Amino acid sequence: MPGARPSYTALVLVLSLVLMIAFADLAQGYNKLHPRDCKPRCTYRCSATSHKKTCMFFCQKCCAKCLCLPAGVYGSKKSCACYNNWKTQQGKPKCP
Q1: Predicted TM-score of the model (pTM)
Q2: Please, which domain of life does this record's source organism belong to (predicted)?
């Protein structure tokens, strides 16, 4: 009987939609950290600088406030808006 069973295409479409929603939630929560996660992530973020002590201080401060940390050892700040937009009184970036 036509129309009695859902078509294969509709089933694939629904399954794809469910997977996209699941992965979107994972991607959105990827940068969300707990304050306890900041020190090890900042250790990596500051590993390439010669000013490790200063970098670690500000990185941990920014990470604890923003609860996100950009990937890599330099740049990529746009992935974490709070981290990217927090400035010093002189208008310079506060977060390394």
Answers
A1: 0.65
A2: Eukaryota
